[in-house]
Design a protein that fits this description.
mainly alpha; about 260 residues
């Protein structure tokens, strides 16, 4: 079909063929040429400009994401039916390109334009962006909103719980850590990251001078997680704990293993 439509160039059917060729080039994976045609058509058909640019921007996102951001921004300024979707797609590209400050900047205004079915993902993206710049209080607010609305044990939930535990550890928020930790244990009981979470839980309990919790966590790691990667750190912490509690037998064995 492509040669047939190309042969119509210079005829009264040339514009019709451009619409068809734009779609053909998309289907065969020639995105640059498809984008060129869609942008050209958007200039010639202002009544369809928003829709044609939306097609172009989605294709640009596959090979020129920075340019796609510009095109989505143009669609947003048109303030038509595609404005909300364009706002969300631009947000995704900012996040994927690591432009965390752009994600965060003015998110209150952006939030008003996010489609309802994308609000959960919006919270995740904004939360991750705050987390990436170590703004833990704001990260927690958005990540918690995502966690509370996510019922299934998805990879996104797993990453969110790990970030919440990290953020709560840095903030010394034991209640939030415990809540996130308990859900992680329930939803991801066999995940290799669980051992790291248990050790972090022990260190947070240590900071709160809760020796019983520290002991429970460290002994759980020693007995149930022999493959835990930081064995030296684990054994040293347990040896120090048993020394402080004057459990000399356990202390001697632990320091012997450490050395």
């Amino acid at each position: 079909a492509k040669p047939l439509y190309e042969s119509l160039d210079g005829t009264p059917y040339a514009d019709i063929s451009r619409f068809a060729l734009a779609e053909i080039h998309r289907v065969i994976g020639d995105y640059p040429e498809s984008v060129r045609l869609y942008v050209s058509l958007a200039e010639d058909y202002p009544e369809q400009k928003e829709e044609l640019l939306f097609h172009a921007a989605n294709l640009q996102a596959q090979f020129k994401p920075e340019k796609a951001i510009d095109t989505f921004t143009e669609i947003v300024t048109l303030d038509g039916e595609r404005a909300k979707e364009a706002t969300f797609n631009r947000l995704l590209l900012f996040y994927q390109l690591g432009h965390h400050h752009e994600v965060i900047e003015g998110y209150d205004q952006i939030a008003k334009m996010i489609p309802e079915d994308k609000k959960n993902t919006f919270n995740l993206i904004v939360g991750k962006s705050y987390f990436s710049i170590a703004d833990y209080p704001n990260a927690v607010a958005h990540l918690t909103a995502f966690e509370q609305s996510e019922d299934n044990p998805t990879p996104s939930l797993k990453n969110t719980l790990l970030m919440l535990m990290t953020a709560s550890y840095h903030q010394g928020d034991q209640a939030l850590f415990n809540k996130s930790f308990e859900r992680f244990k329930t939803d991801f009981p066999n995940d290799p990251e669980l051992a790291k979470a248990i050790f972090t839980h022990a260190m947070l309990a240590k900071a709160a001078d809760d020796r019983e919790k520290v002991k429970d966590d460290l002994e759980l790691l020693l007995t149930e997680y022999p493959e835990y990667e930081d064995q030296e750190g684990l054994v040293f912490e347990y040896a120090s704990l048993t020394y402080d509690s004057q459990e000399w037998g356990k202390c001697y064995e632990s320091f012997h293993n450490f050395l």
